[in-house]
């Protein structure tokens, strides 16, 4: 008698990309649109890219705008400050919105709310209207927070640095691409018969249209979390609907968030300041034409294609070798080197070639430090991840504002002297990293506390009643998946098999 054995087929995986116990992606498929992880990645970096493009659309055309509106050095400095100051509070609000409403709606909202200011840049007629247009456009930089929150929610601890680094770095490319784009658009419009007075105004419609399109794409194709949007998860009870007071309390009482906000002010903040001054600096100091100045300025921002992702990848690699202590040491070393190179950049102002070469090296280190920073931020808190991302991002804008007010506003300092002082500030403001300490993983100068665990660290953000109701389930899974942060000994002693951070390209997985 013949026995037929029927075997049930293996269940179809829920996601195309491999995931951990929290459904966060354990691999990074750069050239894939696999939903929801990689589609969220591409939507986040592109929308942030468009916002960066809009915010810094004016500096490449500044010599023309300056002559048309009769701007003084003080007017230009004030407008540069305005472009990055508004985002300080916008980033804090964005972080809270991500925690409470999700990154999809938060991102689309800020992008659509600031788009009218981009279009209004075409009709400015005075220094005050120029300042207001730059101020309100700059609010769109808050989309950076939703970008980092989104990546921290979609990718597992061992490769979150890479995901954050690539998304942030490619978004920051807008600051370099716009230095090329705006002069080209201006030239094209002028070639069609427009006067310079009209051509630079028409050019602003390109970044405005791109920003509008990106917001629509985020709404149409984005998803907040691996398991769905916030609204659905709250309705089904799969996610706890938190309160603003709890999110705020756990963010502002975590000293690590304040230190990272300070240090980020002197990597990303410096990058913003340089985006505002670099084209005009080379145009005035070395008497190059507008196109050449734009190319040089673009090279600073375009370095983000490899520098910030490289910082994120370095953070994950250091974690795989030395745990969280490796991430902290890596950030301190890279950002300090960036400060030294900034000082050198101001000193070699006598040589055009040397200035360009040092600027490129400086751009790599200061932008890599940004990637290294957001290799640490996701581990500071899980309950207040969005707000702490906002505090760190807002710190970047505060650093940019302070730097421009102190060194590049008016004629108190020559630009090259301001660059030297900016480098000294970078070195000094990076030192507080030595104070960051995680009981379960240690810090730069000391190892972990005996018996401390990641589960205990993250559980402190929840009351006993909330833990009994299971509200902390997601943070418990994150604690289990972050075992690598304790260093090789902790990882090898865990029952979890940690997947190494690899920049993987999967053939045949390129569609939604």
From TrEMBL:
Q: Name one GO molecular function term.
A: nitrate transmembrane transporter activity
InterPro entries registered for this protein in UniProt: MFS, MFS_dom, MFS_trans_sf, NO3_transporter
Q: Where in the cell does this protein reside?
A: Endomembrane system
Could you provide one GO biological process annotation from this protein's UniProt record?
nitrate assimilation
Q: Does the keyword Transmembrane apply?
A: yes
Q: GO cellular component annotations, sorted alphabetically?
A: endomembrane system; membrane
TM regions (residue ranges): 43-64, 105-124, 131-150, 170-189, 201-222, 328-348, 354-380, 387-407, 419-438
Q: What are the entry keywords?
A: Membrane, Nitrate assimilation, Transmembrane, Transmembrane helix
Q: Which Gene3D superfamilies match?
A: MFS general substrate transporter like domains (1.20.1250.20)
Q: Which CDD domains match?
A: MFS_NRT2_like
Q: Which family does it belong to?
A: Belongs to the major facilitator superfamily. Nitrate/nitrite porter (TC 2.A.1.8) family.
- Record-given protein name: Major facilitator superfamily (MFS) profile domain-containing protein
Q: Which organism is it from?
A: Lolium multiflorum
